[in-house]
Write a sequence for this structure.
């Protein structure tokens, strides 16, 4: 998976934007619990009064509070408040830190003044005692400190609550509407929460959009690179992976990676930000329940590790079983006519059911393991909630915690656990995607055996003639124990037809496939106009060749697109001339749409002979220097075969023609016939020469032609 991360460099700017948006989203998500806590504690319990430092206060009340302030505290109050002519002190606009200092300044005086009033002593009496010397300010401060010691660790909270209650009573005494103050606070805080929620939603939507586009870009790049890699593969690499596996890797595997990339960008990056932010927020609540977070996180990690240890091996096996499923399905679908002809439907159904059952069992195991994930995580979250409420309830009862703080702590804890839950959810997809990524990377890292040299000799000749020469060529397939072809030496000249014939398995098609470098020779060399074909680029080599495979291959589109497959420079005239030479014009003209007649995938809507003629016309339209026919006339009737070869000889007088054939009648008039027997040359010459000198050729000829036909040929 890490090897494919390099593809994300192509979209680094969208990823950076996603990370910034996720930070914004996490900030919003982490801010909401504090506002919820403020609504409960300040909006409901405190009537919307946030600070012990009042927004406004009567002059006489301020004078009473002044008795409990030292000079430094009073100077701070004077700097922060302005006395109006109506006898009301109004608080100026101050910073948040200055406001917190004012809360501390007003807290103790308000507590002391409230305590005196509860004991029936008014401020005037206290002033008189201070003026007469019956009590000093030091004694008054000592009394306050003694009173706070009785509350112990709860002293700060007691001071805050008493001060807020004092402010509330002062507002009531001034005739202010307390209900309106509370409503204003609730509306203000609720409005902030709404704004933050909208911002969070906008960030989440943008993250989803950018993540989807980024993953789609990654998928497109991967598919393109895998396609390019496969296009460069020789037959050896194709056989190594198998066609079914390459299709799975190009589609299903890349889809798995693309889906996980979306989840990674949306969740895997977001979860740590949310989790770390939640831990920081929990640490600022000072509830003393941080140990609960450690227990929850530790349990979640153990749970995820246990489930992944069970599921990961099965995920690896699952992808192999998908390959097998595709292979069986492909074989059955492509071989359906043969299956029906031999009444093997039941056997193939059993084979398919076996592959299907293996895949189902593996999927069921992984799904069953992963179904434990969500219930266990939900059990963990609910257990943690109960633990927090239990401990928090005792704290509220003891006066060391407010209800809103406990609510905020629960929310932050759930966010932390939820971040691990999100990672656990990703863990469900990650193992399979990791296996898929390894399979994709295996294709991308595979270097084709046949590749161009750094310095090629494409421009060594201005005009290529098409002289193909085999110079002591031997070949064996990769990992094979013996050579398929041994010491092959002959030359195919322009303007001549060179035929290759032999019994089944003698190596005819293998020999032909060496020319376009579908395989490379093991020993010796093949030259084009004296230049080793390995010194040419594959593009240049294929540009000189016109190849017609043993089995005609057509592509979805229409007849015109197939005939012009050799290049955009092929004109309509050249296309029509090629069709006429290949004896395809008659059936093309009989179609209502002519050259625009649709061709289905694989050419399934045309007959075998028509497909073969279109394949031959495609090669002719390209006008190459060398024609390679791999038993390409086998699907044609004798009459069409003769007419086509006669027209072909007239058209390609200057080109080299190499024909692999099974039928003697196809190659009777060839300028040179190469006879293969078990990978070796048994004879080279014309038909007449070989009938006199080559027993192998004589045996093939007598098995296909009558004595009269052979005699007619002068044998």
């Amino acid at each position: 998976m890490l090897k494919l991360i390099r593809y994300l460099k192509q979209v680094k700017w969208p990823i950076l934007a996603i990370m910034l948006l996720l930070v914004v989203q996490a900030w919003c998500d982490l801010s909401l619990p504090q506002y919820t806590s403020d609504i409960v504690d300040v909006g409901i319990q405190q009537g919307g009064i946030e600070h012990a430092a009042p927004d406004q206060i009567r002059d006489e009340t301020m004078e009473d509070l002044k008795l409990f302030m030292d000079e430094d505290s009073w100077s701070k109050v004077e700097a922060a408040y302005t006395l109006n002519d109506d006898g009301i002190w109004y608080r100026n606009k101050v910073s948040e830190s200055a406001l917190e200092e004012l809360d501390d300044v007003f807290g103790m005086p308000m507590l002391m003044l409230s305590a005196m009033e509860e004991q029936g002593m008014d401020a005037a009496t206290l002033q008189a005692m201070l003026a007469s010397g019956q009590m000093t300010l030091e004694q008054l401060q000592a009394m306050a400190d003694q009173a706070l010691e009785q509350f112990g660790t709860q002293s700060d909270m007691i001071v805050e609550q008493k001060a807020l209650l004092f402010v509330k009573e002062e507002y009531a005494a001034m005739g202010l509407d307390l209900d309106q103050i509370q409503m204003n606070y609730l509306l203000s805080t609720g409005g902030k929460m709404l704004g933050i929620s909208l911002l969070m939603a906008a960030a989440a939507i943008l993250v989803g959009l950018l993540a989807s586009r980024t993953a789609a870009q990654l998928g497109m790049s991967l598919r393109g690179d895998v396609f390019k890699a496969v296009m460069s593969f020789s037959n050896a690499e194709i056989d190594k992976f198998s066609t079914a596996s390459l299709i799975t890797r190009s589609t299903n595997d890349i889809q798995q990676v693309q889906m996980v990339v979306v989840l990674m960008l949306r969740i895997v990056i977001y979860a740590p930000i949310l989790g770390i932010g939640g831990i920081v927020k929990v640490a600022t609540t000072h509830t003393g329940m941080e140990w609960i977070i450690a227990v929850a996180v530790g349990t979640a990690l153990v749970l995820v590790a246990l489930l992944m240890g069970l599921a990961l091996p099965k995920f690896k096996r699952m992808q192999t079983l998908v390959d097998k499923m595709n292979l069986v399905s492909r074989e059955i679908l492509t071989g359906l006519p043969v299956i029906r002809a031999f009444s093997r439907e039941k056997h193939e159904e059993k084979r398919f059911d076996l592959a299907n059952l293996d895949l189902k069992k593996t999927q069921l195991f992984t799904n069953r393991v992963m179904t434990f994930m969500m219930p266990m995580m939900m059990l963990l979250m609910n257990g943690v909630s109960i633990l927090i409420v239990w401990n928090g309830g005792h704290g509220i009862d003891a006066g060391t915690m407010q209800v809103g703080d406990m609510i905020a702590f629960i929310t932050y804890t759930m966010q932390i656990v939820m971040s691990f839950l999100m990672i656990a959810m990703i863990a469900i997809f990650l193992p399979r995607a990791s296996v898929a990524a390894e399979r994709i990377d295996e294709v991308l890292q595979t270097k084709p055996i046949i590749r161009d040299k750094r310095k090629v000799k494409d421009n060594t000749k201005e005009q290529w003639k098409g002289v193909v020469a085999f110079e002591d060529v031997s070949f064996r397939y990769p990992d094979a124990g013996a050579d398929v072809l041994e010491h092959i030496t002959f030359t195919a000249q322009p303007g001549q037809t060179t035929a290759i014939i032999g019994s089944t398995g003698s190596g005819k098609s293998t020999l032909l496939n060496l020319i376009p470098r579908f395989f490379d020779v093991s020993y010796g060399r093949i030259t084009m106009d004296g230049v080793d074909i390995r010194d040419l680029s594959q593009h240049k080599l294929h540009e000189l060749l016109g190849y017609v495979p043993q089995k005609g291959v057509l592509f979805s589109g229409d007849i015109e697109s197939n005939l012009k497959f050799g290049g955009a420079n092929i004109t309509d005239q050249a296309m029509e001339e090629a069709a006429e030479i290949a004896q395809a014009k008659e059936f093309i003209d009989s179609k209502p749409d002519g050259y625009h007649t649709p061709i289905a995938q694989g050419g399934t809507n045309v007959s075998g002979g028509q497909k073969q003629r279109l394949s031959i016309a495609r090669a002719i339209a390209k006008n190459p220097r060398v024609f390679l026919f791999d038993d390409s006339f086998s699907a044609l009737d004798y009459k069409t075969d003769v007419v086509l070869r006669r027209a072909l000889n007239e058209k390609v007088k200057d080109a080299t023609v190499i024909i692999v054939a099974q039928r003697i009648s196809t190659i009777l008039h060839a300028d040179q016939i190469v006879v293969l027997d078990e990978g070796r040359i048994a004879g080279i010459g014309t038909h007449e020469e070989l009938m006199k000198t080559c027993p192998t050729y004589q045996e093939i000829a007598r098995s296909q032609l009558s004595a009269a036909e052979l005699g007619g040929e002068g044998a």
Summary: The mean pLDDT is 83. The two ends are 68 Å apart (CA to CA).
